[in-house]
From TrEMBL:
UniProt KW keywords: Hydrolase, Serine esterase
Domain AB hydrolase-1, residue spans: 116-418
Organism of origin: Chlamydomonas incerta
Reactions it catalyzes: [phosphatase 2A protein]-C-terminal L-leucine methyl ester + H2O = [phosphatase 2A protein]-C-terminal L-leucine + methanol + H(+)
UniProt-listed PANTHER family: PROTEIN PHOSPHATASE METHYLESTERASE 1, PROTEIN PHOSPHATASE METHYLESTERASE-1 RELATED
A GO MF label: protein methylesterase activity
Protein name: protein phosphatase methylesterase-1
A UniProt-annotated Pfam family: Abhydrolase_6
EC number(s) given by UniProt: 3.1.1.89
Family: Belongs to the AB hydrolase superfamily.
SUPFAM superfamilies: alpha/beta-Hydrolases
Region annotation (Disordered) ranges: 1-58, 191-224, 305-338
InterPro entries listed in its UniProt record: AB_hydrolase_1, AB_hydrolase_fold, Epox_hydrolase-like, PPase_methylesterase_euk
Biased composition (Gly residues): 324-338
Length: 458
């Protein structure tokens, strides 16, 4: 009881630690600890009160332990790299006439209108992976690596002018879907690519090349008949290029343009700070997993799955002989790093002279497009004056996604795909125009009448 003499007074045996513990227990009025049970074990139900032992009590008890219950937990932040085969059906290499290079193009879906997705500066076609997976059941999704990006190789990978890159888009479209191209030319210039790009966790087996007759109507082969209906979707730099390509009016049956998070006014205002942004990026990464982790933590991508498949397309591995040289590797490289480190594929610093050209006059060009158009933004604060007036006049559809960052298609791929599907359905892309039935011959058409009372004239 409180205030009583604690156990372990004079004459109590035990170690000094036991004496201190017993005195502390007594000082707080707590009961003394019970002695541990005898080695014989606790009695079981059905055991006699006279101390008789249950014959089954001494038998060893064996229980099944779930497998892996004592395994070491998976460390937090462990990254599993994505494989492009999970999202895309195949990728092809196309060589459009007069473009001086081989363009890598990811394809998903075999039928329906074409949705060509253009990535932003420094990204690759893989940035659209999660969106393509949602669209490919109804549409053909085409995502090229632009000049100087991803797996595309050209004679001049540093020509980032809007004229050159918008012409690249038109040439790729015409080569793959133009009516003037032939299946024979397609078979000669398009080769199926089986191995997964650098950074894939598990390379998938090579996809066999389809015969020309089978591929004649597919997205990788030019159509012999009328070209399919299509929509251009572009993010950031790719949004500007989509507008310039659409404004050229050289893509047949272009039935829509969707621009993702790029506005002339805010883009031009941000250009003076872009070099600081590029300088703040790591120059290289020891592994692709580290690159994905950095992308998520820095906010470059808020979706770990999207970053795991997109980041490998933005990097290239240093060659061993280049590792010791200054300035080796991709953009931002030059801070050292051992052989096998991953550097940026695109030299974004070299695109600086073209930045203003990408965006100057973009808002007016977007508003002047005659096809249906939509602007997807992360917030209304990104709208400039021209687009604000145009939106109030109903010249385009405005879609806001405030929970996403700049890479909307990576941060919110499901919602992005839903909005694209809604846009395609709303404007009946690829569908015949609505027709109204005509009355049979000899039947006078019924004209609408004004609702309301009929006043008799006297």
């Amino acid at each position: 009881m409180p205030g009583g003499r604690p156990p372990g007074g004079p004459g109590t045996t035990g170690s000094p630690a036991d004496l201190l513990r017993r005195r502390a227990i007594g000082a707080h009025g707590m009961p003394a600890p019970l002695a541990p049970p005898a080695s014989g074990g606790l009695g079981t139900l059905g055991e006699e009160e006279d101390g008789g032992r249950n014959p089954q009590a001494s038998a060893p008890v064996t229980e099944t332990v779930p497998a892996g219950i004592f395994a070491a937990p998976k460390p937090r932040g462990v990254v599993t790299l994505g494989n492009w085969h999970t999202y895309w059906d195949r990728k092809v290499e196309v060589q459009p006439a007069g473009r001086g290079g081989t363009f890598n193009v990811y394809l998903a879906g075999d039928s329906g209108p074409v949705v060509m997705c253009i990535h932003g500066g420094g990204y690759s076609g893989l940035t659209w992976s999660l969106v393509a997976k949602k669209l490919k059941d109804k549409y053909r999704v085409v995502a090229p690596d632009m000049r100087g990006h991803g797996l595309t190789r050209t004679e001049n990978d540093t020509d980032f002018s809007k004229e050159t890159m918008s012409d690249d888009i038109i040439a790729i479209w015409e080569h793959m879907f133009g009516a003037a191209a032939t299946a024979a030319a397609s078979a000669a210039s398009i080769s199926a690519e089986g191995p997964a790009p650098s950074g894939d966790s598990a390379p998938a087996p090579s996809a066999p090349s389809a015969p020309a007759s089978a591929a004649a109507g597919g997205p990788g082969a030019p159509a012999a008949d009328a070209p399919p209906a299509g929509v251009l979707v572009g993010h950031s730099m790719g949004g500007g290029l989509a507008v310039w390509a659409g404004a050229a009016k050289r893509i047949k049956r272009l039935e829509g343009v969707v621009v993702v998070d790029v506005v002339e006014g805010t883009a031009l205002a941000a250009l003076p700070h872009m070099m600081n942004v590029l300088a703040g990026r790591p120059s290289s990464f020891p592994s692709l997993e580290e690159a994905v982790t950095w992308a998520v933590r820095s906010g470059m991508s808020r979706n770990r799955e999207a970053a795991a498949v997109s980041m490998p397309g933005q990097l290239q591995q240093q060659e061993e002989e280049e590792a010791g040289g200054a300035g080796a590797g991709g953009a931002g490289a030059g801070g050292g790093g051992g052989a096998g480190r991953w550097t940026w594929r695109t030299h974004l610093e070299l695109s600086r002279p073209y930045w203003e050209g990408w965006y100057t006059g973009l808002s007016e060009a977007f508003l002047q497009l005659t096809c249906p158009k939509a602007l997807v933004l992360a917030g209304t604060d990104r709208l400039d004056r021209a687009l604000t007036i145009g939106q109030m006049q109903g010249k385009f559809q405005l879609i806001l996604m405030p929970t996403a960052g700049h890479a909307i298609q990576e941060d919110e791929p499901d919602r992005t795909a839903e909005h694209l599907l809604g846009f395609l359905k709303r404007f009946r892309v690829g569908e015949p125009p609505l027709t109204f039935p005509r009355p049979p011959a000899g039947v006078r058409p019924v004209l609408p009448v004004v609702a309301g009372p009929v006043l008799e004239q006297k």
